[in-house]
Amino acid sequence: MLGAEFEVDVTNIAHGGISVARHEGRVVFVADAIPGERVLVRVTDDAKKSFWRAETVSVVSPSEHRQPHVWAEASVDRAPERRAGGAEFGHIAPGHQRELKRQVLADALQRMAGVDSDVRVEAIDGEPDGTGWRTRLRLHVAKDGTLGPFAARSHTVIPVDSVPLASPEVARLTPLDERFNGATHVDIVAPSGSNAFVLAGDSTSKGRPKPHRVTELVGEREFAVDVRGFWQVHHGAAQTLTSAVQDAIDGDLFDPRASNHDLYGGVGLLAAAVADRFGPTTRITTVESDALATDHAASNLVEWLGSQAVTSRVDRYLQGLRGSATSWRGATVVLDPPRSGAGKEVVDHLVGLEPAQIVYVACDPVALARDVALLRERGWELSRLRAFDLFPNTHHVEAVATLVPAG
Ligand SMILES: C[S@@+](CC[C@H](N)C(=O)[O-])C[C@H]1O[C@@H](n2cnc3c(N)ncnc32)[C@H](O)[C@@H]1O
């Protein structure tokens, strides 16, 4: 059926920004559509018996929420293989993008963790059309040395004239007219507290590139971070998550002298949020696998005498505490894992340490739901949940959840 074309009615949204339809009883995952539409699709993957994947070739009857794509080069008017990737919700009105993200999050929590939630996805400060927010942008290099994004679901570099999701400074510096022969990708990074950089990368070169420290500002506070290291991409994200994590902590359960932790701590953004709320005597330890990020965390947190920054994988760190007399009773744990989530081993160790509360910052709704399910099976419950649109015009959504022992 590869390449076959037919019309379908799109009924739902699925994780990953793909819509769901049915054709002769079989589930078809459709890109670039909106639930409620009738679209003409072309099958791109028929390898599985239970479902196919397809692309929208044209829209037969559009949703009231369809808008001209914010990035002309990603529009459904182009042939599917010529559409720029990375803005897969750009054809949907911003308020409805957030509604679809809400549905994916609420559905994952209901289905996987048995939790009903009335969560909504909150817009954050920025352009109303969801453009102009990326302070970090990676483009890829084609065989002829030109730059562009990959097409959706492929490694074909698409030449573009604009990068509308980029912040104005990143967009101004993006060298779309230059050639980068020999490089595989180019990163454009515009930190809020230091000069911007254009960094050509070559995945074949050996070893780590030389470290280079830049400064990010969150309110009055400065954070040192490596130019290639992890930092939230939306210009308003670090402040949004700082406030959200501060609000998510139940103050009655917080003990500044307990063994508080910021796991997957990066350069200490969320440890600083905790310490800023609870004051100079707060004890808090960040745990992060990247040694350079840990060095930056140590300097970013230097004013809090009770802070420590440890380089370790979180699973190994928690494993190392097993059998020791260490207690996390009364502790607050901030958990901000990568997209894959924390997983069973980390959840088991954490629960065994008996902290007072966990504030879980999640960039993947399904991984969050999986971990919430594990915690619920072990006697914990979800007590608060907020979600934020930190990635407008994409399918991504960030959630901040508080979990406490039940009863
Ligand atoms: C989503 S980021 C969060 C960073 C930080 N909380 C922030 O908001 O800036 C996840 C961090 O976890 C780190 N990481 C990934 N896997 C890890 C692991 N198994 N153990 C410890 N850190 C890990 C990454 O290097 C990254 O800094």
Automatic annotation (TrEMBL):
Residues 1-58 form the TRAM domain. S-adenosyl-L-methionine binds at Q232, Y264, E288, D336. It holds the Pfam family TRAM. The active site is at C363. The keyword Transferase applies. GO terms for biological process: rRNA base methylation. One of its GO terms (molecular function) is rRNA (uridine-C5-)-methyltransferase activity. InterPro entries: NA-bd_OB-fold (IPR012340), SAM-dependent_MTases_sf (IPR029063), TRAM_dom (IPR002792), U5_MeTrfase_fam (IPR010280). Keywords: Methyltransferase, S-adenosyl-L-methionine, Transferase. Belongs to the class I-like SAM-binding methyltransferase superfamily. RNA M5U methyltransferase family. PANTHER family: RNA M5U METHYLTRANSFERASE (PTHR11061), TRNA (URACIL(54)-C(5))-METHYLTRANSFERASE (PTHR11061:SF30). This is 23S rRNA m(5)U-1939 methyltransferase. It comes from Homoserinimonas aerilata. The lineage of its organism: Bacteria, Bacillati, Actinomycetota, Actinomycetes, Micrococcales.
